[in-house]
Amino acid sequence: MTTIKTTISITEARKRIFDIAKEVQTPNKVYTLTSDGKPKAVIMSAEEYESMIETMEVERIFPDIDKDIAEVKRAIKTGEYKKWPTLSDLKKDWGFAAAGKPEKKYGVHSRNKTKSKKKSR
Question: Which domain holds residue 19?
Answer without folding.
Answer: 1-61
